[in-house]
Amino acid sequence: MPRYFFHVRHGWDAIPDEEGMEFPDLNRAEVEGYASARDLAAADPCAVHSLAAYAIEVADEDGTVLSRIKIEPLYRVA
Q1: Integer Cα distance of 64 and 62 in angstroms
Q2: pLDDT by residue (tens digit) across 8-34?
Q3: CB 3.0 to 4.6 Å from 23: which of 29, 38, 64, 76, for a disulfide?
Q4: Structural domain includes residue 34
Q5: With 0-12 CB in 10 A as exposed, 13-18 as middle and 19+ as buried, what is 42?
Q6: What is the CB neighbour count within 10 angstroms for residue 56?
């Protein structure tokens, strides 16, 4: 089963996922990426505006970024 990595990206900076997770295909890995993005957005509701600049990058074992998932705030503060 292929291994996918979920790097957290902010501009030029990245927090690399050193372990990754195995999934049968990219679609299943993206579901996990969206769940991770949702969890990050829920973890710090006070960071609503700064989270918009972050993304989860789903990469394969070769390091190729296959998908980029923008971290969206769960709600907007007016």
Answers
A1: 6
A2: 988 788 899 999 999 999 999 999 999
A3: 29
A4: yes
A5: exposed
A6: 22
d(CA 47, CA 7) in angstroms, rounded, equals: 19
Tokens of 36: 């991770």
Interval 67-78: pLDDT, tens: 999 887 655 554
Quote the tokens at residue 3: 């291994």
pTM for this entry = 0.82
Query: What residues make up the domain containing 46?
Result: 3-64
Is 75 a member of any domain? no
Both structure tokens of 41: 């957005």
How many structural domains compose the chain?
Answer: 1
